Amino acid sequence: MATLFRNLSLVLTISFLSCHYLSVTSLASSDGFVRCLLQKIPGELVLTPSSSSFADVLVSSIRNPMFFNNATARPLCIVTPADASHVQAAVLCGRAEGVRLRARSGGHDYEGLSYRSARRGEVFAVVDLGARLRAVSVSGGGEATAWVESGASLGELYYTVAKSNPGLAFPAGVCPTIGVGGHLSGGGISMMSRKYGLAADNILDAKLVNANGELVDRAAMGEDLFWAIRGGGGESFGIVVSWKVRLVQVPTTVTVFVVGRNVDQGAADVVARWQDVAPSLPPELTIRVIVRGQRATFQSLYLGSCADLVPTMSSMFPELGMTSADCREMSWLQSAALIQFWNPSTPVEALLNRRTSLSTFTKAKSDYVRRAIPSDVWKNILPWFTMNGSGQMLLEPMGGFVGGVPAAATPYPHRSGVLYNIQYIAYWSGDGTAANRWISGLYAFMEPYVSSDPREAYVNFRDLDIGENAVAPNDVSTFESGKVWGEKYFAGNFERLAAVKAAMDPTDYFRNEQSIPPFVGPKQVRKA
C-alpha cells in the first residue's frame, strides 16, 4: 500500500509530464498514428480500413451483430501484435498522436467495448491480441504453472494444459472461445470455482504494458496494480499481454450429469431447494441450472467417480432424483467439451475452434442472490419463460473456496454470503423489441429477490444499462459517474481501484464507457 500512496503523490507531476501526449481527443491524428506505428512495427501487423483483410479481422471476434453495422464506430486501424514490443509501440504512438486503444482478446465483451466505442466521434484503434498472441507454455516442475498470452482462448488453454498432463487443469469459464485476457481481468467464474476459486484467484504473475508504454511484471508494477488487474475489469490499467497462472489437480476420471425438470415435474420446487443445497455441497461438486422455456436443466461437474457421486446426491439433493444412469464418466478435458457442446461425439479438438457467428443478437444482465428465493416466487418466475421474446437464465452456485476468500483480497467482491450468480440472456434475430422488453421486465421483476445496496452485478457480464462514465472537460472520466456502476461490480473495492487508476494512469488514457475512473481523495483505501 505504501507504493500506492507514493504513486498518488506523483499524480500531479505525471499529469504535467503526460499532457503533451494526450490533451484533447480533437487533436488526434490518425495519419500520424499509423505513420508512427509503421516506423516501429512490421507493416503487415497494422491493418487500416483500406487493407484487404481489415473487415475480416475486425469481424473475426465479434460475437454480436448489434455491434457490426453501419452505425457502429469503427477503429481507425487494427494492430495485430506478435510480441509485447508491438503493444508497447502502439501505446507510445497512441499517446503521442492522441489515439486511444481498445484491447481485444476473444471479443466476448457483452457490450462490444473491446472493439467499438459507444461514444460518437471517439478516435481509437484496436489492439487485437487474439490474432497472434496466443501461446501457452506449461511448466510441471514443483508447483504446476503456465504462462498464457492474453489472446489465447480458454479452449486453447484447456487443451494445451491437458495434453501436457491429463491430471492438470485450469479453473475458468465454460465457453471455450472466451479470450483469456478479458476473462481473467474480470474474475472468471467456472465449474471448479467452488473447489479452486476464480480464475483470478489463481494468477501468480502478469506482464502488462502500462500507460507509459513500459512492459512490467508483478515485481515492477507493484502489488497495488497487480491486485487491480485480477478482477478489476479490462481496459483500465494497461494491456496485459500474458499471465502466469497456477494449474490445479484433477482426477483421471470426472463425472458429468444433466438432469432436466419441467414445470409439471415440480421444477420450481427443485430449483428452490437447489438454492440451499448447491452452495454447501462438497467443493468437488458443482451443479448449475439453466432455465429456458418451461424447463430447468441441472448441469453438473464432479471431480470424481459416479460411484462416489450418487450417494452424495442421494443424501444431499434427493429432490433432483439423479441416478447412476445419468452419469457420464470421462477425462476433465472431455468434460470441458461435453459441458459446452453437449454432444458425446464432439472431439476435444472442438475446444480449439475460435470461429464466431453473427446470426444471433444478444443482450445480457446479471445479479447475485444472498437469500434463497421462495418456491412460490419461482412459480411466478418460470412463466416469464413462456413470454414472447423469452431467453434464458443461468444460475451458477458460489460457496466453497470462492466464498471463503475475503471480499477485498481481489477486486471481485461477491464472496461470503453469496448463494449464486444469475445471468439473464435474451436472444433474437431481426426485430429485438420483444426480447429486450422481456429481459428488462424480468430484471425489474427480480429486484426484490436479489442483492441490494448495491444491487450487485458481475463485470464479465458487462451491462451498460447500469451506468456509463461521463467525461469531464479535462478529458478524464469522472469518479462520481463511475461510482454509479462501479459499486455494483466492485462494491467496497471500487474506491481502491479508482485510487490505483489515479496512480498508474492519471490522464485516463486507457478507458472505455465502463473503465475505472481516476480518483484522488482524502479517504485512505483499504488494504486487501
Automatic annotation (TrEMBL):
Q: Which SUPFAM superfamilies match?
A: FAD-binding/transporter-associated domain-like
Does Flavoprotein count among this protein's keywords?
yes
> Which residue intervals define the domain FAD-binding PCMH-type in the entry?
71-250
A Gene Ontology molecular function term for this protein is: FAD binding
Q: Which cofactor does it need?
A: FAD
Q: Which Gene3D superfamilies match?
A: 3.30.465.10, 3.40.462.20, Uridine Diphospho-n-acetylenolpyruvylglucosamine Reductase, domain 2 (3.30.43.10)
| Signal peptide region | 1-19
Q: Which InterPro entries match?
A: BBE, FAD-bd_PCMH, FAD-bd_PCMH-like_sf, FAD-bd_PCMH_sub1, FAD-bd_PCMH_sub2, Oxid_FAD_bind_N
Keywords assigned by UniProt?
FAD, Flavoprotein, Glycoprotein, Signal
Matching PANTHER family:
OS08G0158400 PROTEIN
Q: Which family does it belong to?
A: Belongs to the oxygen-dependent FAD-linked oxidoreductase family.
Please give the name of this protein: FAD-binding PCMH-type domain-containing protein
| Source organism of the structure | Oryza nivara (Indian wild rice)
